[in-house]
Amino acid sequence: MEFLAHLSRRRMLQGMGALAATALLPAGMLPAYAAGPVNDDFALISRYLTGRNTLPDDFGTALFDAFVKTDADFPQQLSRLNQWITRNSVPAAEISRRLPANSQVSDLAGLPALILTGWYLGIAGSGARAICVAYTSALANQDVAPVLNPPTYAYGTYGSWAAKPF
To answer: How many CB atoms lie within 10 A of CB 105?
Structure first.
């Protein structure tokens, strides 16, 4: 009880207000980065499609979780796609042509584009069910960051406005 002696009324009201405000936030307003591990099929297919050896784990986990929220069958679709790619040794450059032509997996034809959109634009899903997972972390923005200086009030390289000032 000794700590209560040093607690001002203002500080207690601020704390109660902050606690009440977080209770009113819908779950979709909380940070998109989730704590669960990223699915192995998603990690493999993501590296395969993007042509990158490594991708950010926290972004990948958040993206995977968002895809599962928009489509509960997403993990099963990833597994089927990964098996088909492995079994047929399909180069990434040919996937958009060969996937729709194969009747066993033609229903997965839009999946590679959906995954690439997630990584490059930071958006999982489409339309009204789309979930924005990242902005400055999205690969398209990371790729142009060293050379793009958009005309804004925030001077500096792309995304420099996101860092806390010194």
So the answer is: 19
The pLDDT tens digits of the residues spanning 6-59 come to 556 665 556 555 545 555 544 444 444 444 556 889 999 999 999 999 999 999
**8 Å CB contact between 123 and 133:** yes
Cβ pair 39, 75 in contact under 8 A: yes
Report the C-alpha gap between 145 and 159 in whole angstroms: 7
Query: How big is the chain, counted in residues?
Result: 166
Q: State phi, psi for 132 to the nearest 5 degrees.
A: -85, 120
Residue 123: phi, psi to the nearest 5?
-120, 130
Q: Decide: helix, strand or coil at residue 27.
A: helix
Task: Determine contact, residues 151/164, Cβ cutoff 8 Å.
Answer: no
